[in-house]
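Chapter review: from sequence to fold.
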Amino acid sequence: MIQANLDLESFYQQLPENDVLKTIAYEGDLKITNTSNKQFKYPTVSNLCLHPKTCYELEFILGEIAEKSFWKCEECRKSFVKEDLCKDFRYKVQNEFNEFVTNIMIIEGKLFNKSSRKARYLNHFTNPQVKIHMRGLYQRYVATEGSINQIIINELKKSQKIKTGTNQRIQYWAFCLQDKVKITIPVRIIGCNHPECYELTSLLQVQSQKQEQFYVCSYPGCDNPRKKIDISTIENLFSSITIDEDLLKIIKQSSLSSMKFVFNYQTQKFEEDVYREQGQIIDPVIQKYFLKNSKEIKVAFAEFQKQVLSLVAQVCQNDLFKDQPNLEKLLAQHKFRNLEINMKDKQTDMIIEQPVRCKNCTNFSTCLDLKSYACEFIKRKLIKQTDLFKCPICQTPFQGNMVQSMLQNYIYLDQNLLFRMFKDLSYVNTTKFQYLGRQYMIQEFQERQVLTKTEYINALTPKNPSQKVEFKSIFCSFNKNQKLDIPLVLFNCPISTVIDFDTFYLQLEKCNFDLSSGLILCKCQTCNTTPIKSLSGSIFYHEAFDYALKKYYSSNSKSMSFSYDFQKDTLTNSGALADTAALKNAQVPKKMGFLDMLNEEEYQKIFGEKKLEGKTFQILSITQTDVFDGIAITYNKDGIDSNIVERKEQMNANLKNDQTLKQYNFVIKEMKLELNNNPIVQNLDLKG
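The token string follows.
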């Protein structure tokens, strides 16, 4: 028997490889198991077979040839002999993937874990432009020094945390920085040196929405000078990212539900956070739950674990927020609150590693571990499928019975907590995690929403080459009793009001972090009539003022105002330009254009394919002409656009040519178009 296996192995290794893999542009779900539901040992086809979904075991084919002198392929309906046989591409699976993987995904001839993401994410791989650039991405695998292994080694050396001669183990979580889903195709922004990275489909989705021309790496404290990348086109996005081959190998060789890995510095390799017992993979969380509830669970541990891990994998790659915008809004309102979160899972008594709660939970200080939650769901389902399932946190029942309820449509990973908990592991010893929302907001301002000192000086210099600026008050404009500590400038305010962060944060707490009704932080007419409804592009950290302010405070002056010479980098008493005048010339990047509608299901239904009287048709675009004085709006599946910018320029040109109005120097500085209950979208009935 051993000799027979050796002969089979030897024969198989000499076979050429079938070329069908090179022809596959995208296949989202391809089975890689045989009739025994095990991964193929010697997957074989003929040199003429062009059917990627079907292959055969070599032993079966050779048996057919021995009996009939030929083998007939059921797909091709042709007969072949030994000399016609080839390796099917599935032979790569044993080396590249975890032994329990049953289905994979193919993109431009490369093998990946099957993704559980929704079609809107995976459909990007059918885009011709994405196809072209995927091939280029494969050829630009990240260099060794930029891979996950070397990044962690360099990080340890830099922080001097390596203990010589010890088996040091560092935790790493493979979740996407953009939307916290489990990574299937790991990509990095070129130049980033932090272990955390992105899921490719998440970045493709951001690019397709076309809300922003640029994307900035969302890792807190990222020091990459090239962290701001142009995503205005697919080509620009792909030119700024690269695949982390080391991390890709780790992900493919782990179970589909694994997000946690451990880097062993001694072996300089990553290991999945599981252990083996008699050849069987054991997940410690699932095992702990199983042992505590073994009397109620009527299946073997292996089967129970299999069902739990399958469910966990679906939750990890689901995007509940896209279908639950109110839930995303609620989570956003808690992003910058201070919270103390209990990190001890009440069902297993273990430390929570993947914090989840259901969409009905309102207490953001409590959560469960994802695997623990999935264990409870599977246990209840095994006991009685007709029962309603209640959330073990808030006790709210899910809709429908256990068969109808899909867990991934009810629970979500807490992205706020997940993003921060791995940077501060102190909760492992105390079971309490101090979520410092206020501090995170300061960090967000100082790193992202900032009018930098350089930008400020560049705007100042044309009007004031001496770079002397007078800051007329060291007190917050909104709260006269509050001395400025972290100055924020209201960028859209005509008088460039400066407020202190503490005052601003207090106002956020008063409105429960809900800006839907608008936030008024200045008493001028403009700010009163157009309250702040979005922080993005409205309020900026004034870095230059903060820099000068710290120098002023260290001088122990008692004055209520001061002047600063940025050219000489010192306080000054000579004449200076007012800070408000300097701010008027400052150009700060901010969100422009319309709210993209790509993810609105009702909007997308308009432009999807439809059947009418047996024929398929599809609306490609709708144009609403002459909405107001020549302004037109175009609607299509990618969103909404208008000619408002061009029309503004035309109207200004007309004003200059009008002899009567010319003397008044009228200029239209800004035009806004709001679509409230638009009848084009509301009344479009395509039922035939």
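Two observations follow directly from the output. Confidence is low (pLDDT under 50) at residues 589-607, 676-688. The first helix runs from residue 2 to 13.
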